[in-house]
Amino acid sequence: MAREAFVDDVHSMKVLYQEYTKRNDIDDVAGVEQDIRDAMHKCSMKEADVQQTIKDLSRQARELEEAATYPHREGFHLQRVAALERQIDSAKRMIDDMDMEARTAEQQCEEIDVRMRAAMASARELAAASSSEAANLMSELSMYKHITGVTWWPGKSTISGTVSDAKTGDIRMFDFDQDIDKVELVNKLWELL
Question: What Gene Ontology cellular-component terms does the record carry (predicted)?
């Protein structure tokens, strides 16, 4: 019966260890939030570039209209208009490209938002599971301490503590190197009990 209780304790310790390794989910959420901030910053930069291009093209259009009056050679106005139309076509293509990039960025933002919501839901579930598992583990460890009479001395560089015998009143100390094999440690503790 004591061996079965010890197996349960080992299982509980493994669960506790796994709980401490779930920090990756929190890091994933932080990474998703950083991706969202980066995407929003890129969108802002692209919008500023498009606005500046439109201002530049508007200014050039005004300059070309002013320069297209006749004391110039014949056909000059048509050449300038054609050059302006080419620039406008180029700007339209650039705006279309930027619109496509903006839609892609919006889709990425939506995907990131979905991933972030899923990660946050997962984090909430893990936190709920963690709290109930931690309470169960604390209860099991308390029961283990009561049954075995083992008192641990945390904070030392070795695995150490005491084992008390309620019948004889004896208190036996133990102190093992942390590099000891787990099976060997269990056997030595079992001998003390």
Answer: kinetochore; nucleus
The Cα–Cα gap between 75 and 80 comes to 9
To the nearest 10 degrees (0 to 180), the angle between helices 76-148 and 2-20 is: 160
pLDDT (0 to 100) of residue 43: 76
Secondary structure class of 90 (helix, strand, coil)? helix
Residue 100: is it exposed, middle or buried by C-beta count within 10 angstroms (0-12/13-18/19+)?
exposed
Domain hosting 97: range is 21-143
Q: Is residue 176 situated within a structural domain?
A: no
At which residue do the structure tokens 């054609």 appear? Answer: 82
pLDDT for 89 equals: 92
* CA separation for the pair 77, 71 (Å, rounded): 10
Question: What gap in Å lies between CA 1 and CA 19, rounded to an integer?
Answer: 27
* pTM summary value: 0.30
Q: Does 155 map to a domain?
A: no
pLDDT of 107 above 90: yes
Between these two residues, 94 and 64, which has the higher pLDDT value? 94
Which amino acid belongs to residue 91?
A: A
The count of structural domains within the chain is 1
**Closest Cα partner for 174 from 186, 183, 12?**
186
Residue-wise pLDDT for 22-50, tens only, equals 666 667 667 777 877 887 788 788 888 88
Residue 85 lies in a domain: yes
